[in-house]
Design goal:
The protein is α/β, with parallel strands linked by helices. The protein has 3 domains: 2-221, no CATH class; 264-325, DNA polymerase, domain 1; 346-387 and 404-417 and 441-452 and 459-534, no CATH class. It is 43% helix and 17% strand. It has helices at residues 13-21, 23-33, 37-43, 54-73, 87-95, 164-180, 203-221, 244-247, 253-263, 276-282, 288-292, 305-322, 386-403, 415-426, 432-440, 445-452, 462-465, 484-500, 504-534, and strands spanning 2-3, 9-11, 79-81, 100-110, 113-124, 127-131, 137-141, 151-156, 188-191, 198-201, 327-330, 346-353, 362-370, 375-379, 409-411, 442-444, 453-455, 543-545. Helix 1 crosses helix 7 and helix 13 crosses helix 15 (432-440). It is globular, with a radius of gyration of 27 Å. It starts with a strand and ends with a strand.
């Protein structure tokens, strides 16, 4: 969203699919672009640097890689990348029947509002995109080129599957091609991430989605102008639901998170189904506090009694935390079931990265903490080192098992055993028996927490649970890496420093940041294990203040 040259709203393809998924996002974007002072002040603390977002970085990398692959597959002059926002250059290239045009720019006026956008690829009828066995994308001539050139729009996404929002985005370019008389009748499509092939969409279905999205957006745009908009136009300060922040590219997810918590929205309930929140609200229970204040399990139309009871009991303990006290609601009587401790116990965590130019995840770090809280780590700086570091980890773990047959390897959630199995398969069943032996000693503490209690925070993430076992005194969670996504971004910075900038000192410093984060995750797993062994509930349904 922006203010156009005519002083009215101007929009892009992204605004269309935002309108279909979250009116809040559109209204907020309009107020910010119109520089409504009070709105700008509210969102400023939650502005994000998109240049640090790995999905955006890798989306751009995937796009560039596909462009280079297609260009290499065609004779000189058959691939043209349009330079800058110049729709005339795009139209001229199409009139000349250039087989593949990248970054084709379009602009037009729709109902008095300016629209503009870049089509990643425009493919001339008579040509098509194909994926070779090695995953590269090529353009090939598959038929006759019509005298009057016709084009099919394509987008490039570093994704494993299609999405309606991509379809709407593509259809906006198709609409412009139709207006110019340059649209092919062939299916429009998405080039997906490495080795994931393509998604193709039917034109009629795609244009219906586009028209519906455009109608929804225009309804909002027609309500105010950039000169008349006020803060009151922003009728909600959160997305419709938590998942919307990810699915429609919310501009201010931090704002939504903060307001979700302050408003105690039902979507904060642990493992709540996205269809259940509206049903609970329809029963007059507008937030978690309203649900918690009931003396008995409510009857809610369309919701099975066991779900109503689960949410009601969770709301009770969450209300205690809203009132300022750390609390757990027991699901058991007695203590959580964890194995007895062993001197050889290990606490394990892995880090991985998904390159845009190869298939599967690159496991670059295997980290472990022992009962003495000393940290061991095996780091693969490049994919060629992955198997070697995998072997070193296996050898280390097996030596511990040999010395302490009763030991366990503790982890939180299920990535660790799955990644070991994946690596064994990747290398042709490499050391499959060793992986099976190690995985037999694996123990997932997340299963224990989920079976034992409901946290007052509403979240079973290890970062959220750390507050209950006072992990801050031993961890350094204030660093650059606050979660797995941050670790992946830091690895991208490491990769650039090492391979592109040839700055090994900078690269080592970045890798140390990731290793420090991994150590904290391993140590936190140990601290959780120690804490679980001390927990004891007098009865099922007890609210225990921590």
């Amino acid at each position: 969203m922006r203010i156009g040259s005519n002083g009215n709203w101007a929009f892009a393809s992204r605004d269309l699919f935002k309108a279909t998924g979250c009116e809040h996002c559109v209204r907020l974007s309009m107020a910010v672009k119109a520089e409504v002072a009070t709105v700008v002040e509210k969102v400023k603390p939650f502005e994000e640097d998109l240049s640090t977002k790995l999905p955006i970085i890798q989306g751009n990398q995937r796009e560039r890689l596909v462009f280079e692959q297609i260009k290499s597959s065609l004779p000189s002059g058959d691939f043209l990348e349009v330079d800058g926002p110049d729709s005339n250059k795009t139209i001229q290239a199409m009139r000349k029947s250039v087989p593949v045009i990248a970054q084709g720019f379009f602009q037009s006026e729709i109902n008095g509002y300016e629209w503009s956008g870049y089509a990643d690829l425009l493919v001339l009828e008579g040509y098509d995109l194909q994926q070779n066995d090695n995953g590269t994308i090529v353009a090939v001539k598959v038929g006759e080129v019509p005298e009057e050139p016709k084009y099919t729009p394509w987008d490039v996404k570093n994704s494993s599957a299609g999405d309606p929002k991509y379809q709407i985005q593509l259809a906006t370019y198709l609409n412009e091609l139709q207006e110019l008389g340059l649209a092919s009748e062939q299916q429009i499509g998405i080039v997906l991430g490495f080795s994931n092939g393509f998604v193709r969409y039917e034109i009629e279905e795609s244009m219906k989605l586009y028209r519906d999205a455009l109608g929804t957006l225009l309804e909002v745009l027609l309500l105010v102008t950039p000169r008349t908009i006020t803060e009151e136009f922003v009728t909600s300060w959160t997305c419709t639901k938590k998942s919307t922040c990810d699915k429609v590219y919310c501009d201010y997810p931090g704002l939504c998170t903060t307001n979700f918590k302050s408003q105690r929205v039902l979507e904060l309930l642990p493992s709540v189904n996205h269809t259940h929140g509206p049903k609970i609200r329809a029963a007059g229970l507008v937030d978690i506090s309203a649900l918690a204040n009931l003396d008995a399990v409510p009857e809610i139309a369309g919701l099975r009694p066991e779900y109503a009871e689960r949410y009601w009991t969770a709301a009770k303990v969450m209300q205690v935390e809203f009132d300022g006290k750390l609390a757990l609601l027991s699901k058991i009587a007695g203590s959580p079931e964890v194995p007895e401790s062993s001197e050889g116990d290990l606490f394990f965590d892995v880090e991985w990265f998904s390159p845009v130019d190869s298939n599967g995840e690159f496991i670059f770090m295997f980290g472990l903490v022992g009962t003495d809280e000393k940290f061991e780590v095996f780091i693969a700086e490049e994919q060629t080192e992955e198997q070697e570091k995998f072997d070193l980890f296996l050898d280390y773990a097996l030596s511990k098992i040999a010395a302490h047959p009763e030991m366990h390897i503790y982890h939180y959630n299920n990535p660790e055993p799955k990644k070991l199995e994946m690596l064994s398969k990747r290398y042709g069943g490499h050391r499959a028996a060793d992986v099976e032996r190690i995985n037999a000693r694996m123990f997932d503490l997340m299963k224990v927490t989920e079976a034992s209690f409901v946290p007052g925070s509403g979240s079973y993430s290890i970062k959220s649970l750390e507050a209950y076992y006072d992990a801050d005194s031993k961890l350094n969670r204030g660093g650059l890496v606050k979660g797995g996504a941050d670790a992946m971004y830091q690895f991208e910075l490491f990769r650039v420093a090492l391979a592109d900038e040839k700055d090994s000192a900078k690269a080592r410093a970045i890798m140390q940041v990731i290793a420090d984060y991994n150590k904290d995750d391993c140590l936190s797993t140990k601290l959780m294990y120690d804490w679980l062994r001390t927990l004891k509930f007098d009865a099922m349904g007890q609210i225990l203040l921590v």
